[in-house]
User: Fold these one by one.
Assistant:
Number 1:
Amino acid sequence: MKNLMQTPLGRFRLVSMVEGLSYALLVFVAMPLKYGLDMPGMVRWMGRAHGGLFIAFVVALVLAMFSRKWSVVRAGLLFAASMIPLGAIWIEKTCAAEAE
């Protein structure tokens, strides 16, 4: 974990994992609770947390993009993957391979 925080790519990977987890919880736990069991409170809290983490994800993506000299297309693919539930798994896989 400590090594992840030392580089822009590592920070991006860490933020991506946490943001992806928050998105998965929002989609697969909070939304079914809201619409299946009429319990909207979880969406309110998870939505706020995910929104803040998504902003951190975008900032970390831009910083990693400039430090690693990624193309706009590559950064766009990583951004698009974050829109897919569990897309953070693909992001981590591709970025971990690059970090080695």
Number 2:
Amino acid sequence: MNRLYSLDQINYPKFRGKIIDLYLHAFTSGEYAQYVDRAIAGSTLDDLVRKGWGNMLFVGDKLAGVAMAMSLLYDIDFPTAALPMISPEHTLYISEVMVHADFRGRGIAQQMVNELLEVSGDSFTDAVIRVWDRNEPALALYRKLGFKPVTSIWQTKLEAPGRPFEMRKIYLQRSIRSTD
């Protein structure tokens, strides 16, 4: 049975270790792996929770997925000048979606993203998500949820300590509600 819980500054400390483990599992293993130092992962997640909120999905007692979001104002990489039709003040930025490999393909990411969109509809008119262009399963999911590509950026990531590589990230956008 799937249980979805909100994630915020109050309950984050209790689950921090499990969330860091999931983050490292999701981003440092499998076909789309990159190197992420554990300390940097922890400080990244700490910062995301300070700026935003999210949800956690448990299957039994196992943390199967986490999705995190904040205002697009906090995404320093978003090319605001090139996309004046997207207002950072009114746009939700889904900053992280991670699902443990044992639970992929079960609709967990879709459930978590839909919940973020639903609870954010009163505060935001649009949503943006950024994904590695090689991550076809994620791109397919976000397109299925109504997101459309609007631009892309290049980021330097690590394959291993001291071995950088360039990653193309695609920003996808969709409306949450009308501005009326």
Number 3:
Amino acid sequence: MIRGRHDRLRELLNKVRVEQQTSLDELARYFRVSTATIRRDVKRLEEENKVVQTVGGGVIYQTEHTGAVDPGRIGRRVEEKIRIAEHCTELIRDHDDVLIGPGTTTFLAGKIISGIEDRRFRIITSSLELALEASVAPNIRTVVLGGEVWNKYVVGPEVGCGYFQDCHRQHTMILSADGIHATQGVTVFESRLVPLIEAMVNVSDRIVLAADSTKFGKSCFNRIARFDQISFAVTDREVPWEYVECLEEHGIDVRLV
């Protein structure tokens, strides 16, 4: 699964960042290498003050400002979602204004993006957790949108009203979905999120659709974007091939990870 130590170190750090706490044995199983190999990798990250190894073989992310991601919140296909989230970091440019839409995959992407150190950019989010995480990074400016708080997100028809009225229209948006359908486009189930997502879409000139393959072929009640509004689609390799062709026919750059 992992082709070299450099890639494994990067993905190992991202996995610990997302889970906040894991173990040497679990990491060895995940990366399909020996416990001794993982122990050396963790030691390297520990020397860089990025993780802490406990006496009992636990591995903890070195942070003062976030808690662990609830595994139930991530849902199914965790490995695929982490790979998708990691690839989204490659699409962030220096001095980008990055809108992080609501959703589990976008939340993971935001957490991993907050670990980027070689670019300066701004994150605009309605996630209170993500805002706290990104706000401590010296190279990231963080904007949290105002409105009513629901399920750790800021929502409501007036959410971010001041920001979206005054901002430019050249944002990069990380967009998630509950359903992606050939005729219905990109859809979500929760109606309370629609005004926020639509406002984000309207001010974005680069939209990255980040969704695992189980979302394709499904349609929910609320359409939030058309295919011709999407610039990139990042998904796993189990996506039905007819959807890869459909997205590419609309000029979307499809990334399979």
Number 4:
Amino acid sequence: MSQSAPYKVLFVCLGNICRSPSAEIIFNAVAARAGLAGRVKADSCGTASYHIGSRPDHRMLAALERAGYSYGGHRARAFRRSDFTEFDLIIPQDEYNEQDILALARNESDRAKVKGMWTWFAAEETEHSVPDPYYGGPAGFDAVVALLTRSMERLVNDMKSTMDNLPSAM
């Protein structure tokens, strides 16, 4: 992690209208509260292209609002190979997204940037990945927001610890 350029994180789900934009929004809020604003930057995308240009699902936006998060205007986009170059860390929301991303990796360096969101789940979590709430009701969207919030606290704390231990820029 460089002191000069922000550390760039990319959250990935299937359509980029539920889980990954939520992860982006929650990460940005948690990182700002942790004093990392300007030191980290998040984006999100999907492995499928059928929602390109769409806003996040209205049910997910409602769940985020209920939890106190604000929508920042994100529009869905598809994952592209150049994301391996642009981002320092790529976080798929489930194993299928992870497989799709790794299939596009050009080398071991690309593969090393991919770490599933479950890496930051607490040991007591019952989920093994971030469930897709798309075909369910409001409770599923709320559960995803809660899971991501708990996990994002762990991710941001890990990043903050690493950044705080970097030598100061000259």
